[in-house]
Amino acid sequence: MKRVVGLPGERIRIADRQLYVNDSPVAEPYVYHDPSAYDPLSDSFPPPPGHFIAMGLRPEWASQIRSYLHDGEIQVPPDHYFVMGDNRESSLDSRYWGFVDRRAIIGRPILIYWSIQATADDYADRSLLGSLRGIAGTLLHLPSETRWNRMLRGVH
């Protein structure tokens, strides 16, 4: 699940973990910054020229991103959106794979019914055995990994 932070025609940048849209800072009380995780694109985006592929961007996005850069910002093209996850250091989102076409947006969330603490490593092994290990680990650590403060909360 990702949050739309940039509409068609808007200019996006991040400086010192602050999201700016059209040069105005955006208040984001729902964003979580994990002090133990490192993600250079949470601190500053877009990355400087020459750092696109090294930063883990999908190759096709790394080759396209330059065409959307204007004065250190990304401009969202018509009929596309820029999306970001709320857990910024653990979210693969438009910073890494590009814009979302309007036709790919199918709904709007209204409620967080269950939320667990997880990392990308928890989902890295997609084999049958890895999936079974993941399910067993989730069940074993369900009470301690559940983010109880987020359960049954409305989405902003």
Structural class: alpha+beta
Largest sheet: 6 strands, antiparallel
Q: Kindly state the mean pLDDT as a whole number?
A: 84
How many domains make up the coordinates?
2
Note the gap between the termini.
13 Å
The SSE order reads EEEEHEHEEEHEEHHE
Q: Please identify the top-level CATH class of the largest domain.
A: Mainly Beta
Which residues form runs of ≥5 with pLDDT under 50?
none
Which percent bin holds the helix content?
10-25%
Describe the global form: globular
The CATH homologous superfamily of the largest domain corresponds to Umud Fragment, subunit A
Could you tell me the CATH topology label of the largest domain.
Umud Fragment, subunit A
At CATH level 2, the architecture of the largest domain is: Ribbon
